[in-house]
From TrEMBL, chain A:
Coiled coil: none annotated. Residues 174-339 form the CRAL-TRIO domain. Pfam families: CRAL_TRIO_2, RhoGAP. This is Uncharacterized protein. One of its GO terms (molecular function) is GTPase activator activity. It comes from Adineta steineri.
From TrEMBL, chain B:
One of its GO terms (biological process) is endosome to lysosome transport. One of its GO terms (molecular function) is GTPase activity. Residues 185-206 are annotated as: Disordered. Residues 197-206 have a biased composition (Basic and acidic residues). It holds the Pfam family Ras. This is Uncharacterized protein. It comes from the Eukaryota. GO terms for cellular component: late endosome membrane; lysosome; phagocytic vesicle. It is found in: Late endosome membrane.
Length: 545, 206
């Protein structure tokens, strides 16, 4: 406490920071109205602090360059570079790096904006060799955080000459073998008429297979693989092209070493990057996301922005004619697991979680409300109406999972034996959240957003029409049952502290969400909460008239 | 020593719903406690400047919602954090048991450099309440196991230990920054042997 006295710790209200900031903060401020005076300081760092879902889709910050932490306040961003800040950060990082490496400023654009479209021609002819040297040196820097600790330095030693295009390549026959694996395939045009190259991680052979094949060693295989890659790409890189990468199936026994990846990246010349218009990473895992901060340090921001995550094959259909590409069967069968859907084999008639409401009710003949909802609500009605923070407080995740399994297996669940009302409350929230489609349906989601934004006297009438006319009858019955109960909970808010507003915050996101994850923004959560609060507070008018 | 550059530290507060994350932040930044019971939507941040030795530090403190549904938003908030504050409620064994998963979640989502030594601070909040369930010893031994995470028992309501805890947060974040500075932000460049110019097959230069 020695040096921190109350006088020195003033919340900052200075406006001087605002001049550095041209990014539109309106969205973030919309949900932050409560603490306006403090926002200004934060703005100085806004270019790397905007929550992802507040950004428009084309600035999805997974792929934007975010520096690893603190920002010196005195380092005012140079706005003339780019008003959106995104390139700016990359440039600044690059500048630091170049300074560190002792590069002259005039090499600036050569080294770091190699795959930039504009101004490319100038450097293209005269300075290409120079560019590549610099880029190679710069992009090689990745070990700072120690996550990649493979010794690729020696592998990068580059003792082999670049004879990639030698027509008398002795490996020619081996290359034909590589082709048989189908790891990369060219598959016609995408919806924008660009050539499409498909890479499938699941088709990479395992080490054992390689050792028993003509390649004998993994090194040989990977060497040929890289050559084959470059050859294949050579046929396409003169025109615009896109890459689809199916990540599913990359396992420890077939994963190429980091060293090889680095080598590949260094080998990939500007000509391959220039016309690459998009990379679609299908079924990205946490591993990719975990590795991303590392990759980001070697891949330029401009390249990063070409990358799109695809969580479901269906999303890919937006960009690609799916019938044109050969999706590996392994990927096809994996797909339904992603998101909350179980693969067909694992669904039993008794399954209650991660399936559709329709499915559940079909398997509970004679019921209009699923058993999980009925049982949890009954238990809370009897034991938890006066419990402070009911539906807000958490329960043990291990117990929630245990109960989910019991339900899925069709076993009886006795909440009495656990003696925790929060557990029943969490199971109810989990149930709603795990439905393959929310109670309010995907189709109505845009309407709910529009509706909540309106402040009209006839709002209740509009909502009533909406849920009666447009919500499927099954969903309506369940919603009515649920909201009637939440209205009851709110009546006890003197003791349980859960007002309609609090209940809407914890329940809103479990009742309605968008299929498109980028739509699930904080701003939209707020709109859904408003809608939910009206449902709970005006239950009588909405459902009983 | 002359006053050096101002520094911005990003701090993330995590923990189960209702343990007092928002209250701790408000107590630290505004010296206020509200009895109002209100769940947080998504995430929110406040900033506060403080003097740590010769450095003027701006802390940007991110308060997050404990609700499960918001956790998918996590990654955007966690990234670039300099310190992570894990909060539990000493009257709630569940919130204590959750510390582990919040810590893991943070490390996976934020992907910091050197995750082993990333600065965490654990706060056992609500010590003003009488129905305490987690003894100090139990919390301390958990923290010791986790590479000696500093542990403070706080009361956001009465302002107990809050200032001190956040000062430790700032100090540890600064210390880490210094370490990284000393290691240099960028590793030694890997030398790529340059290929012979012009290539052998090129006969024109003979």
């Amino acid at each position: 406490m020695s040096s921190t006295s109350p006088d020195e710790t003033i919340p900052s209200t200075s406006n001087e920071f605002l001049i550095h900031n041209s990014l539109d903060m309106a969205q973030i401020n919309a949900h932050k109205a409560s603490n306006t005076p403090q926002n200004n300081t934060a703005d100085l760092d806004s270019h790397n602090e905007i929550p992802m879902n507040l950004l428009p889709a084309d600035k999805h910050p997974y792929w934007n360059n975010v520096p690893s932490g603190r920002t010196n306040i005195e380092d005012a961003p140079q706005l003339e570079y780019d008003e959106h800040h995104i390139d700016l950060i990359a440039d600044r990082d690059g500048a630091d790096l170049r300074q560190h490496l002792g590069y002259e400023d005039h090499q600036h654009d050569l080294g770091f904006s190699g795959d930039e479209d504009n101004g490319g021609d100038v450097y293209n002819n005269e300075s290409l060799s120079n560019t590549n040297k610099n880029r190679g040196a710069i992009k090689g820097n990745i070990t700072s955080d120690g996550i990649i600790d493979d010794d690729f330095e020696s592998e990068l030693g580059g003792h082999e000459p670049a004879n990639l295009h030698d027509t008398e390549d002795v490996d020619y026959q081996l290359m034909a073998k590589i082709a048989e694996y189908g790891i990369i395939e060219c598959c016609g045009d995408d919806k924008f008429g660009r050539k499409t190259i498909v890479c499938s991680a699941c088709r990479l052979p395992s080490e054992d297979v390689i050792k028993n094949s003509d390649f004998k060693t993994i090194q040989k295989f990977h060497e040929c693989l890289l050559k084959y890659f470059l050859r294949t790409f050579d046929q396409y890189v003169d025109v615009d092209y896109v890459i689809i990468y199916f990540h599913h199936g990359l396992r420890s026994y077939n994963r190429p070493s980091y060293g090889w990846l680095m080598k590949a990246y260094v080998r990939i010349d500007r000509k391959y990057k220039k016309n690459l218009k998009a990379v679609y990473i299908v079924h990205p895992t946490k591993w990719i996301k975990f590795l991303w901060p590392v990759l980001r340090s070697i891949i330029s921001a401009k390249f990063s922005r070409k990358v799109t995550y695809i969580n479901r094959l269906g999303e890919l259909a937006e960009y690609i004619h799916l019938e044109n590409i050969r999706i590996p069967n392994e990927v096809k069968t994996f797909d339904p697991v992603v998101r909350s859907q179980l693969p067909a084999g694992q669904i039993r008639p008794t399954t209650k979680f991660h399936v559709s409401l329709q499915f559940i009710l079909e398997n509970e003949p004679g019921e209009t409300v699923p058993i999980v909802i009925r049982q949890t609500i009954d238990y809370i009605k009897n034991n938890g109406l006066n419990e402070p923070g009911i539906f807000r407080r958490a329960a043990l995740v291990s117990l929630i999972k245990q109960i989910q399994e019991k339900y899925n297996e069709g076993q009886p669940v006795m909440f009495e034996q656990y003696g925790d009302v929060h557990l029943a409350a969490c199971v109810l929230k989990t149930f709603l959240r795990d439905l393959s489609e929310p109670i309010m349906t995907f189709r109505l989601y845009p309407e709910l957003l529009g509706l909540s934004a309106l402040k009209r006297p006839d709002q209740v009438d509009i909502i009533r029409d909406l849920i009666i006319e447009k919500l499927p009858a099954q969903n309506y019955n369940v919603l009515k049952y649920l909201i009637e109960f939440l209205n009851l909970v709110a009546n006890y808010s003197d003791t349980n502290l859960m007002t309609t507003s609090n209940l809407s915050i914890v329940f809103g996101p479990n009742l309605a969400w968008s299929e498109d994850d980028q739509m699930n923004t904080l701003a939209n959560y707020s709109l859904i909460n408003t809608f939910t609060e009206i449902l709970i507070a005006r239950y009588t008018e909405l459902f009983l008239k | 020593m002359a006053l050096r550059k101002k520094v911005l530290l990003k701090v993330i507060i995590l923990g189960d719903s209702g343990v007092g994350k928002t209250s701790l932040m408000n107590q630290f930044v505004n010296r206020k406690f509200s009895n109002q019971y209100k769940a947080t939507i998504g995430a929110d941040f406040l900033t506060k400047e403080l003097q740590i030795d010769d450095r003027l530090v701006t802390m940007q403190i991110w308060d997050t919602a404990g609700q499960e549904r918001f956790q998918s938003l996590g990654v955007a908030f966690y990234r670039g954090a300099d310190c992570c504050v894990l909060v539990m409620d000493v009257t709630s064994p569940t919130s204590f048991k959750s510390l582990e998963s919040w810590k893991d979640e943070f490390l996976i989502q934020a992907g910091p450099r050197d995750p082993e030594n990333f600065p965490f601070v654990v706060l056992g909040n609500k010590v003003d309440l009488e129905n305490r369930m987690i003894p100090t010893r139990k919390a301390q031994s958990w923290c010791q196991e986790k590479n000696n995470i500093p542990y403070y028992e706080t009361s956001a309501k009465e302002g107990v230990n809050v200032e001190k805890a956040f000062e430790t947060v700032a100090r540890n974040a600064l210390a880490r920054e210094k370490e990284i500075d000393q290691q240099a932000d960028f590793p030694i460049p890997i030398r790529i042997p340059q290929q012979e110019d012009p290539p052998k097959r090129d006969g024109c230069s003979c």
